[in-house]
């Protein structure tokens, strides 16, 4: 903790602590990127306040110290112990003006005013199915245990869409002024770029394919997406292969058996987790991006694909229409045939396809991490007043 001691008496407008426990892990996911990208923007735009970023050690040192931003690594054997014991102890030593916890949960006993980013309340809703990993299962129970105990302690609760804001307010009966929506952004790394077949072919042998970004969480709707792809293959003259990120072969085999569509496996490519470095290239090369989730509080991949000029087929439920906009291709995610039909329309109508490319590139201009960071600073100052 010598780092904390060294900067303890540094004078600044506010002293702000931010929990970003998982940003140094190599295989980052949605909430990790939200925390990382917003902190990076805070580092660029806010030179008045002093920041202490609390992280767990990991191999991906994706954020560095600067004059008014200090990275503090806390070691602990498990996430609950890290958050409930190590974090509040470290915060008490720093004595910041507030602590912002970025990933749905926070210390039950927090020594300073608390800001919480509550991305969603899926853990309070009826479960879509039980096909979760052990990690997801434990996280689900941890959130159900912790969140109700911290809500009354939060000075402000941030969520990521108006849809989720309304859901949380109704479900948890929160005062209107306690909760606010701040949209996520997307990294400028995601943009139109020239073809890079040497990168694409590491993952899929074709230069023309469909792209699905899923995981084992039931809300990602992997089974129906594969069923939709099987229907697409039956009707398509082109029969583009499907690149699937973040799903292992055993899980895919299980879904193919379940849906009775094992014959489509020869058209599938499943390299596992794909890092951000290559993801933009893969969005660019894809004919279309499939994101027909059953439930999303935001949906950053929608923006990432759009920023690359790739048409998106996404769900017409929860926050996806709010993010993708009225001009996007929105389908009922419960209906595989509707998903397949959308792909076939894109394939058979060149005018529609180009309209979607143009629409996507305009739509993403409404979102940025800079805007997210600016809104956070406003919230911090409101609490400090």
Polypeptide structure, described:
The chain has 385 residues and is of the alpha/beta class. Strand 1, helix 2 and strand 2 (50-55) form a beta-alpha-beta unit. The chain has 2 domains: 2-185 and 368-384, Glycogen Phosphorylase B (Rossmann fold, 3-Layer(aba) Sandwich); 197-366, Rossmann fold. The protein has helices at 2-7, 30-45, 79-94, 134-150, 162-172, 197-200, 222-235, 249-259, 276-285, 300-307, 320-324, 336-348, 350-363, 369-384; strands spanning 15-19, 50-55, 69-73, 98-101, 114-117, 154-159, 179-181, 210-213, 242-245, 268-272, 288-291, 312-315, 329-331. The chain starts with a helix and ends with a helix.
In short:
By secondary structure, the protein is of the alpha/beta class. The protein contains 14 helices and 13 strands. The chain folds into two domains: 2-185 and 368-384, Rossmann fold, CATH 3.40.50; 197-366, Glycogen Phosphorylase B (Rossmann fold).
Q: Key terms for this structure?
A:
385 residues; alpha/beta; Rossmann fold; 2 domains; 14 helices; disordered N terminus
């Amino acid at each position: 903790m010598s780092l904390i001691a060294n900067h303890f008496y540094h004078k600044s407008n506010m002293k702000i602590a931010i929990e970003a426990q998982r940003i140094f892990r190599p295989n980052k996911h949605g909430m990790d990127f939200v925390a990382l990208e917003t902190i990076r923007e805070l580092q660029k735009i806010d030179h008045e306040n002093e920041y202490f970023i609390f992280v767990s050690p990991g191999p991906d040192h994706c954020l560095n110290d600067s004059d008014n931003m200090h990275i503090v690594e806390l070691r602990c054997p498990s996430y609950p112990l890290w958050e409930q014991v190590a974090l509040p102890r470290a915060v008490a030593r720093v004595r910041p003006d507030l602590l912002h916890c970025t990933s749905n949960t926070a210390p039950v006993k927090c020594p300073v005013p608390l800001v919480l980013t509550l991305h969603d309340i899926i853990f309070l809703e009826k479960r879509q199915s039980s096909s979760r990993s052990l990690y997801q299962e434990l996280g689900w129970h941890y959130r159900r245990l912790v969140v109700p105990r911290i809500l009354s302690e939060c000075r402000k609760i941030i969520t990521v869409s108006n849809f989720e804001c309304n859901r949380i307010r109704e479900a948890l009966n929160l005062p209107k002024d306690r909760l606010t929506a701040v949209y996520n952004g997307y990294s400028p790394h995601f943009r139109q770029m020239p073809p890079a077949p040497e990168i694409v072919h590491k993952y899929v042998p074709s230069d023309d394919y469909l792209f699905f970004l899923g995981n084992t969480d039931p809300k990602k709707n992997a089974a129906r997406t594969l069923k939709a792809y099987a229907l697409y293959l039956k009707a398509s003259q082109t029969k583009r292969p499907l690149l699937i990120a973040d799903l292992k072969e055993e899980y895919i085999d299980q879904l193919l058996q379940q849906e009775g569509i094992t014959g489509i496996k020869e058209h599938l490519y499943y390299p596992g987790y794909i890092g951000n470095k290559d993801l933009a290239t893969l969005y660019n090369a894809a004919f279309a991006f499939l994101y027909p989730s059953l439930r999303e509080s935001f949906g950053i991949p929608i923006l990432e694909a759009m920023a690359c000029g790739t048409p998106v087929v996404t769900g017409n439920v929860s926050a996806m229409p709010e993010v993708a906009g009225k001009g996007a291709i929105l389908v009922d995610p419960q209906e595989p045939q509707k998903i397949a039909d959308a792909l076939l329309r894109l394939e058979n109508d060149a005018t529609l396809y180009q309209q979607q490319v143009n629409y996507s590139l305009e739509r993403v201009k409404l979102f940025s991490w800079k805007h997210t960071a600016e809104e956070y600073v406003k919230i911090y100052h409101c609490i400090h007043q």
